[in-house]
Amino acid sequence: SLYASKIISYAQRFMLIREAAATYGWKLNNPAIALMWRGGCIIRSVFLAEITKAYRDDADLENLLFNDFFASAATKAQSGWRRSIALDATYGIPTPAFSTALAFYDGYRSERLPANLLQAQRDYFGAHTFRVLPECASANLPVDRDIHINWTGHGGNISSSTYQA
């Protein structure tokens, strides 16, 4: 649990740094950032050398979980990670860092989740629109554009930009 959660923690750190760099136009040297953390920083870790290697091998690496070393490590840790969190929950032991790391991992590696239902709920309650999956398309449900469904049969056709409460 600890090892896999640490991998997720570092993956999230580099995701945040990547987003900030895109927003502010920063030029980053991710291998150097990992090395900097290794030398004298409170968050130093042995596998920072692996992070450095991952970014040296692929300067445009979108996420550490796309690197073979880290993907394999997270996959191998999954069973024990899940058992540990389940046991913790059974005994009422809060492990929020481990639990949220696993939830992030599950969400990040899954193309579709039950949470996609939230799009329909948001459209029903607030006319926020949604996109239809290609395999669900029909004449009434077109693909590749945002649509709104008149779920209740009254209230007219509205979109989030024209919705008036």
Automatic annotation (TrEMBL):
It catalyses: 6-phospho-D-gluconate + NADP(+) = D-ribulose 5-phosphate + CO2 + NADPH. Gene3D superfamilies: 6-Phosphogluconate Dehydrogenase, domain 3, N-(1-d-carboxylethyl)-l-norvaline Dehydrogenase, domain 2. It comes from the Eukaryota. GO terms for molecular function: phosphogluconate dehydrogenase (decarboxylating) activity. Homodimer. Catalyzes the oxidative decarboxylation of 6-phosphogluconate to ribulose 5-phosphate and CO(2), with concomitant reduction of NADP to NADPH. This is phosphogluconate dehydrogenase (NADP(+)-dependent, decarboxylating). The lineage of its organism: Eukaryota, Fungi, Dikarya, Ascomycota, Saccharomycotina.
